[in-house]
Amino acid sequence: MRTGRRAVRTLHAHVVSVTRYRRVGFSDPRPVRCEELMREVCAGFEVEPREFNGDHDHVHLLVHHPPKVALSTLAGSPKGLWARMLGKEYGAHVRRCLWGGHLWSGSSFAASVGGAPLAVLEQYIEQRKRPV
């Protein structure tokens, strides 16, 4: 009788999302709410956020994700959901930041961080300037 093999993987990714044309998008109290909304969106994708920070025109996100969630999905799909949620709560401000009806740039950065120590990555993201 043959027994099945199982591989346990711990996958982490560093995702950076930028507002369209690097226009100002985040200032207090939105960063705190943005982080809360990001956590809600990540839960829908079965992704565990580890660290979140950014500046007025971009955000950094370190996540733990299951192998079934593609890195390309992490880079793009949550941005649309996140933008709609922000639009509902901060409609007037978000509309001022829209270019062509979009809050986020069409491109994103997402990289697997397989060999890097998580403490180093968490420290890097934590040190990014929090929008004020």
Spans of 5+ residues with little confidence (pLDDT < 50)?
A: none
By CATH reckoning, the class would read Alpha Beta
Q: Alpha-carbon distance between the termini? A: 62 Å
What's the CATH topology name?
Alpha-Beta Plaits
Q: Structural class of the helices, strands and pairings? A: alpha+beta
Helix tally equals 4
How many domains in all?
1
What is the residue-averaged pLDDT? 77
Helix proportion: 25-40%
Output the strand order for the largest sheet. 2-3-1-4
The SSE string, one letter per element, is EHEEHHEH
Radius of gyration: 16 Å
State the oligomer.
single chain
In percent, how much strand structure appears in the residues?
Answer: 25-35%
Q: What kind of sheet is the major sheet?
A: 4 strands, antiparallel
Please identify which CATH superfamily we are dealing with. Answer: Transposase IS200-like
Shape: globular
Named at the architecture level, the CATH assignment is 2-Layer Sandwich
Per DSSP E runs of 2 or more residues, the count of β-strands stands at 4
Protein name: Putative transposase
Domain Transposase IS200-like: 8-128
InterPro entries: Transposase_17, Transposase_17_sf
GO molecular function, one term: DNA binding
Task: Give me the secondary-structure topology.
Blueprint: E1 11-19, H1 30-44, E2 48-55, E3 58-65, H2 71-89, H3 91-97, E4 104-112, H4 118-126
Antiparallel strand pairs: 1-3, 1-4, 2-3
Helix pairs in contact: 1-2, 2-3
